[in-house]
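Title: [Solved] N5,N10-methylene tetrahydromethanopterin reductase 3D structure

Original question kept below for reference.
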Amino acid sequence: MTDYGRDLQFGVFVTPSPDLLDNSYAIAEIADDQLDFIGVQDHPYQKHFLEAWAFMATLLARTDRVRVVPDVANLPLHNPAVLAKTAASLDVISGGRVELALGAGAFWDAIVAMGGPRRTAGEAARALREAVEVTRLMWSGERSVRYDGDFYGLHGVHPGPQPAHDMQIWLGVGGPKLLRYLGGHADGWLPSNSYFPPEALPAMSAQIDRGATDAGRDPSTIVRAYNVFGEIGDHETGDRFRGTVSQWTEDLTTLAVDTGMDTFIFGAPDDDLTQTRRFAEEVVPAVRTAVARSRGRH
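Solution (posted by the thread starter after getting help):
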């Protein structure tokens, strides 16, 4: 059992579909009023999706409080120096409401079809580590920075602007080496239940802790976010993330107090507005109360 005692955060996953714009804006309004995050997937090769960063900029412009995070940014199709500048620019414009989450890449045929590289798992992992280092340099406020990597380079560039707040870098990774790297060098972890079920999380989180400890960092400083795709219903089921508000409350509370996950980003079927409202109005306050009660007993 691992509970890092971090404040809970909640968000909603919004699909960047041109066919769902009015629905997306309605979800963003709910999130701005009651949640902490809006997560936006970044699949530039998907013809049915809007460009993620243009969409995120629009959501930021239509909201006042909620933070927005790419969930996760498609690194192979974005130069990390330009990506860092884009994220910092939106952070400045929005008054500090952007975090940056990076992914090593997947769907390589689609990436190649759009002019991107095809990378092996090892190459993708090394490129991701380099991108984190490039991003830190681009946010450093130094007069001039250089970086010589196998995949990315900076050659006397003048970085800026700096983010408006201490912007975090989250990684959507799952392998033990990258998890240990995250513990030593990144600020947050963003897996999804569709790839990593709850029973896989403790061992993965332990790798993050190991990397943090080896680097002299406090593991409790690292955000542990979880994309939870499911459905809130009126009848109990035997399936996780598909059932009543009480079932959802128990599932998320257990994740918080037993596995240390502290941020939950809900993905409703077809971005259903009623589901999103139930999550924000019924599940979130119930989980906050249950976790506070559990922590008070220890």
